[in-house]
Design goal:
The longest helix has 26 residues, at 6-31. This protein has 2 domains: 1-52, Homeodomain-like (Arc Repressor Mutant, subunit A, Orthogonal Bundle), CATH 1.10.10.60; 53-186, Tetracycline Repressor, domain 2. Helices cover 74% and strands 0% of the residues. With 197 residues, it is mostly helical. It has 10 helices and no strands. The radius of gyration is 19 Å and the shape is elongated. Helix 4 (55-77) packs across helix 5 (79-88). InterPro entries: DNA-bd_HTH_TetR-type_CS, Homeodomain-like_sf, HTH_TetR, Tet_transcr_reg_TetR-rel_C_sf. It comes from Saccharomonospora piscinae. Residues 33-52 bind DNA.
Length: 197
């Protein structure tokens, strides 16, 4: 029997994650039954669970994948850009990304086992934000009267507030200027335009 290539395995894993993202977004964690996961991915339960031990492992892998994508955006453009992408739809799967983030928040509140597993993995976004802010401070672009840790916590709270706002279905058409204010609030003011944080 021929061996399956790593490229094929990686493509299959991506297919499962992309389908599962849609399923979890549409039905939530509890409503994402194995049958619905099969429909969303176009694969059998055997194929899905060959790559992931169980539904919980699949969801955690999906949440990690989205956190990694967000951390990549933060490293390049800052946490405010992540928020802008949630608003603009510039990301490849903005609504799906939001759906995963909402499910993570819900499970953190209600599932102690998930909370323990997620705690080991959730530092990625915070670390990327802190590194970006330190880099901006060294470049002279970041206000220096507040610690980087406080600014990191502030931006993360704004992100969580935006996610909650979008989750409630509240209007988002006029939030770009709000993000402009958030971005301005962490900049060092010298009368010159500075790069995005």
């Amino acid at each position: 029997m021929p061996r399956v290539s790593q490229d094929h395995l990686a493509a299959r894993r991506r297919q499962i994650l992309d389908g599962a993202r849609v399923c979890f977004t549409r039905h939530g964690y509890e409503g994402a039954t194995v049958r619905r996961l099969e429909d969303a991915t176009g694969l059998s339960r055997g194929a899905i669970f060959h790559h992931f031990r169980d539904k919980d492992s699949l969801f955690l892998a999906l949440a990690e994948d989205d956190a990694r994508r967000m951390a990549d955006v933060v490293a390049e453009q800052g946490l405010v850009q992540v928020m802008r992408e949630l608003l603009s739809g510039a990301d490849a799967h903005p609504a799906d990304w939001l759906g995963t983030r909402l499910e993570v928040s819900r499970r953190l509140r209600t599932d102690p086992d998930f909370r323990a597993r997620w705690a080991q993995r959730s530092e990625q976004l915070t670390t990327a934000t802190r590194k970006r802010l330190l880099w901006q401070r060294e470049a002279g672009n970041l206000r220096d009267d507040v610690s980087v840790d406080v600014l990191t916590a502030y931006l993360e709270l704004v992100l969580e507030g935006l996610v909650s706002h979008l989750a409630m279905g509240l209007p988002a058409d006029d939030l770009e200027p709000v993000l402009d204010v958030v971005e301005e609030s962490v900049r060092r003011h010298r009368g010159l335009a500075t790069p995005e944080l």
